[in-house]
């Protein structure tokens, strides 16, 4: 899908035809086919191979300075399914005329710029727009991290009531998601530090930074570091929680096995007694009318004595 946007004179974001995009426009390309890539190449002069790099799910976050454009790849969080999260690369191109975003699928961070009118951004302020995407990506990571922590607490409550493995599997999914987030945030941190070095050194003409932009970049770095700290804290908490609950489940299983063993012993006592009196030889009380009741009561009493012993030994 290839779409173009531009703020009009009233600062309202309007959708325009990609072929009619003019200087200061934003071209957004998600899950494109080959025809759309060719159209984007014709409009921006960005090589097809470079555009395909932005569509690689395994592409690492980096900043690439080329003659005629700046290529930035950042990681953005995505929800794969329930309890499963990952990071998706988002390619950002800054050219003399356009601000271009390219992604393998529809991106939640980009959708927020399209759907939330309170976001103050302008398509023609390319450097500011780039930094705002970075900031929104970091804040979205933080949002998902808080959501993971909340879900982890819910799983803890469920584990207290259940011996099923599905809760541990959910914790494993959370741990895997945190691992993905940790790698993605570290990669984004490298991008931000590279941009910071560009500010201190020779800033490319396509990446003009004003004082407000520099302050925004510093805020982004702080936000990203906060997300990294949260990932580290939540990962340690999750590992400790999994180890603790694994021990609890093992202890519960041991208690159940101990109880079942005691019950087996108790059932074996009357079984042995009644089996002995069932053999085909002369036995005491075999001619008595009270013999059956005596044997039943004797079995119950002896079993009760064994139960008291097991209870005293903390086996029941």
Automatic annotation (TrEMBL):
For this UniProt record, the keywords arranged alphabetically read as follows:
Membrane, Transmembrane, Transmembrane helix
- Protein location: Membrane
List the transmembrane segments. 259-277, 289-312
> What is the predominant subcellular site recorded for this chain?
membrane
Q: How does it sit in the membrane?
A: Multi-pass membrane protein
Tell me if Transmembrane helix is a UniProt keyword of this record.
yes
Q: What GO cellular-component annotations does this UniProt entry give?
A: membrane
* MF annotations from Gene Ontology: metal ion transmembrane transporter activity
Under the heading InterPro entries, the entry gives:
CorA-like, CorA_cytoplasmic_dom, CorA_TM1_TM2, MgTranspt_CorA/ZnTranspt_ZntB
CDD domains per the record?
Answer: EcCorA_ZntB-like_u2 (cd12827)
Domain of life of the source: Bacteria
Q: Does the keyword Acetylation apply?
A: no
Record's family? Belongs to the CorA metal ion transporter (MIT) (TC 1.A.35) family.
Instruction: Specify the protein name.
Output: CorA family magnesium transporter
Lineage of the organism: Bacteria, Bacillati, Bacillota, Negativicutes, Veillonellales
């Amino acid at each position: 899908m290839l779409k173009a946007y531009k703020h009009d004179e009233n600062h309202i974001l309007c959708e325009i035809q990609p072929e009619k995009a003019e200087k200061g426009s934003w071209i957004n390309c998600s899950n494109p086919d080959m025809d759309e890539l060719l159209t984007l190449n014709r409009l921006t002069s960005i090589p097809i191979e470079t555009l395909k790099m932005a569509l690689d799910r395994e592409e690492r976050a980096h900043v690439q300075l080329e003659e005629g454009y700046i290529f930035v790849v950042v990681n953005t969080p995505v929800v794969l399914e329930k309890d499963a999260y990952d990071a998706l690369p988002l390619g950002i191109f800054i050219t003399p005329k356009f601000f271009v975003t390219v992604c393998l699928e529809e991106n939640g961070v980009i959708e927020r710029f399209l759907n939330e009118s309170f976001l103050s951004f302008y398509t023609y302020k390319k450097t500011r727009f780039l930094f705002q995407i970075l900031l929104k990506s970091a804040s979205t990571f933080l949002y998902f991290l808080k959501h993971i922590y909340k879900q982890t607490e819910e799983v803890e409550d469920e584990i207290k009531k259940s011996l099923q493995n599905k809760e541990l599997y959910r914790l494993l999914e959370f741990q895997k998601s945190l691992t993905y987030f940790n790698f993605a945030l570290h990669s984004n941190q490298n991008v931000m530090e590279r941009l910071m070095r560009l500010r201190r050194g020779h800033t490319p003409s396509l990446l003009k930074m004003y004082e407000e932009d520099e302050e925004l970049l510093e805020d982004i770095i702080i936000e990203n570091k906060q997300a990294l700290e949260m990932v580290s804290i939540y990962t340690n908490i999750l590992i400790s929680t999994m180890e603790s609950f694994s021990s609890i489940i093992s202890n519960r299983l041991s208690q159940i096995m101990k109880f079942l063993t005691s019950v087996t012993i108790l059932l074996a006592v009357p079984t042995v007694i009644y089996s002995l009196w069932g053999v085909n030889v002369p036995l005491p009380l075999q001619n008595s009318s009270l013999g059956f009741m005596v044997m039943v009561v004797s079995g119950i009493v002896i079993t009760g004595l064994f139960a008291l012993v097991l209870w005293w030994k903390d086996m029941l």
